[in-house]
Amino acid sequence: MTTIHTIAVTKEITKETPAQINESLTILSGKFGGTCYAAEGYETIKQQPVEKALKRAENTAQSGHHSVYQHACITMEIQCSKILAMLLNSIGISNTSEKSARYTKMKPQTEAEEILYYKWHDIFMELIEKEYKEKLTEKEANKLAFENARYMISVFTPTSMVYTLPFRNIFYVLDFIQSMINNLEKLSGAFNQRVRKELEELKEELLKVVGNKQNFHDNKNEYFRFMPVQATGEKEDDATPVYGDVYTSVYLASFACVAQEQRHRTLRLKINFSGTDAGEYGFYVPLLVEKYGKKEEWLSDMQTVSDCYPQGTLVHVTEQGLFEDFALKCKERMCGRAQLEIMKLNEWMTEQFLEQKENLSKANKKRLEAMTPNGVAAPRCAFADFTCQEGCKWGPKGALGRLI
Predict the structure, then answer these.
(1) What secondary structure letter does DSSP report for 276?
(2) Which of 289, 287, 307 lies closest to 298 in space, CA to CA?
(3) Residue 117: helix, strand or coil by DSSP?
(4) Hey, what domains does the chain have and what are their CATH numbers?
């Protein structure tokens, strides 16, 4: 007979010091490790002396069997740059609730960025009025204007997030950080050196969380795969696109778009960006800007703040995963409420799967058919296996054709 007994929960801390937190979670991890050998369940482990749990935790740390440290988690409020948030979000096992650059005003760090941020907000308001006067309210237009104007501000713009990592992974991330710092010391480019400086600050702050004690180290020689140039010194941009049950897709996307893409933890993303010239792959141009003949002005303004590495900077992306996880991503991003750039990108990827659907299994062909009524890419509200609970102004006929 199946039974469940709750043995631990997450609670807000009160007066515990980082050192006390480290010790208590180490004890807890040692207790959890005891279940592998307990003949009569966890209740017997609770009665054992604390010293026994500490010894067990020490032994598992030394042996490299760190999974027992993954039951306990630490939740932090982190103030950092957008690029560091992206790096932290690239960890497969983590959870984030982040300040939205789509729904809130951001605070650019330089006067040049701030001027362009508000300049293009006002331009977008004018263009939205021309194109969608009867469709969108002033409040909706204002949100979309700020969402698109943020392409002008730096990927180093400050953000904040509530961020949860398993106890084990904090020590691994500390190793990933140090490994990237060591590599960045060898690289040129303002982007790379700023990332290095911010990683040094992040390491110092993260160490404080665990009482300045690193209980153990990563024993698999891992690193931040999300940014291979910065982590290893080498680009990984030679992947061959394949669209099947397991897929590899290669494309250009802005920093702002990649930040959205990487939130889908079941998928793997890598950005190849040397960190020297912001214009290495060019800059993203919003469709509404292009339609109304303002592309050159947009690119000129992007160039004036290129030394800040604006979020509209394009990077080379390799995305890999399973088709069924891509389908799940589309149930969020193929939507009139989603960021336009990521929606159009996933529309394009859906078309690649349609062109190569013979590579898919029968089960995945059915999933693709559910996503593509009439044999063409469609928004999620037209999927056969999805019911939208949000609603939007665009609907199934207008979502993919919108310009903002």
Answers:
(1) S
(2) 289
(3) helix
(4) 18-73 (no CATH), 246-273+313-398 (3.30.70)
CB contact set of 228 (below 8 Å; sequence gap of 6+): 234, 235, 236, 270, 272
Exposure b/e, 9-18, CB count within 10 A at least 16 = b? eeeeeeeeeb
| Length of the chain in terms of residues written | 404
Distance CA 76, CA 93 (A): 15
Closest CA to 315 of 268, 286, 276: 276
Q: What single-letter amino acid sits at 273? A: F
Does the predicted TM-score (pTM) go above 0.85? yes
pLDDT tens digits for range 317-364? 999 999 999 999 999 999 999 999 999 999 999 999 999 999 999 999
Q: Please give the angle made by the CA atoms of 380, 385 and 386, to the nearest 5 degrees.
A: 45
Encoded amino acid at 337, one letter: R
CA distance 235 to 256: 21
pLDDT tens digits along 129-185:
999 999 999 999 999 999 999 999 999 999 999 999 999 999 999 999 999 999 999
The CA distance from 381 to 371, in Å, is 10
Distance CA 190, CA 154 (A): 13
Rounded Cα gap, residues 369 and 357, in angstroms: 10
